[in-house]
Amino acid sequence: MTHVLLSVSKLSKSYGDRRAVDGVSFQVLRGQTVGLLGPNGAGKSTTVGMICGLLASDGGTVLLDGEAVGQGQNAAKRKIGFVPQDLALYEELSALENLKLFGALYGLKGAPLKERCLAVLELVRLADRAQDKPATFSGGMKRRLNIAAALLHDPQLLILDEPTVGVDPQSRNAIFDTLEALKAQGRSLIYTSHYMEEVERLADHIVIIDHGKVLADESPADLYRRLPAQAALQVELADAPSEALTAALARQPGVTTVQQQGATLNVGLAAQDQASAVLRWLEGQGCRFLHFATARANLEDIFLNLTGRSLRD
Ligand SMILES: Nc1ncnc2c1ncn2[C@@H]1O[C@H](COP(=O)(O)OP(=O)(O)OP(=O)(O)O)[C@@H](O)[C@H]1O
């Protein structure tokens, strides 16, 4: 058995003359969580829609366990669970009745269906609300019920399209707990988001997508290694530093970059724990500080480094 569960190759789709997805390729290994990260309109939803066989592609292939996932019913598709951006629930049926209905679509019935419904409700932490209607649920609870529905047939790969948009913090945590439990069971996940903190928390591997193209396809550690600085120190001095001082600062150990704007210095650091040494050095040079702050580099910086633009533009 190969380690590769899903293989996406040169996937493309245009809407009219707009190329929404332009030759996207990446793989998902067994047990791996892949974060598909990109700004709004980058092509994430279109990509996952094609992976699930819900949207027809203009070109490219999607193989799951070596089998093509096309449109229509097929065995490969059954190994995928999909949680779309838009909720799909019957508001007037109870949570349990909703799941029974979805389970029946997968050919589950009788006692095994009931057992599966209760197990997935437990997994998304809605077991105590089984008899309640989604009409009485918060947005986050509805989202969790939708995740439960996608898990009924016990898929190998769960694909979630921006699952935390419009979700309250309590449900957000419950969703993360569910996904972490699935990871621990060895399931594979694809998680699309434009929230870098979420992708950082969950993903073993990150695919950054922009304008329908893959810009990076790496582990978080490798992505960070691309950055010129792993942390930043911002210091506001009482007086603007001399050019000689700024130049000498740039030569200090652990300092990767120095930018000066008036009395403010932005210092790139090879590691965050080098900030105190830099501050001591500045103090030794007779500098007085008004304010200073440090920040660890994040995926936002990586996106900025790759595209010259902010992820949230
Ligand atoms: N049905 C459609 N008809 C026409 N254009 C579309 C359609 N769906 C998406 N697009 C366009 O395709 C591009 C990619 O959209 P897509 O929804 O895949 O991006 P996304 O990264 O998922 O963004 P979002 O987070 O906003 O959903 C965008 O420019 C979008 O406007």
UniProtKB/TrEMBL annotation:
InterPro entries: AAA+_ATPase, ABC_transporter-like_ATP-bd, ABC_transporter-like_CS, P-loop_NTPase. Gene3D superfamilies: P-loop containing nucleotide triphosphate hydrolases. One of its GO terms (molecular function) is ATP binding. PROSITE patterns: ABC_TRANSPORTER_1, ABC_TRANSPORTER_2. Keywords: ATP-binding, Cell membrane, Membrane, Nucleotide-binding. This is ABC-2 type transport system ATP-binding protein. It comes from Pseudoduganella violacea. Residues 6-236 form the ABC transporter domain. The keyword ATP-binding applies. It comes from the Bacteria.
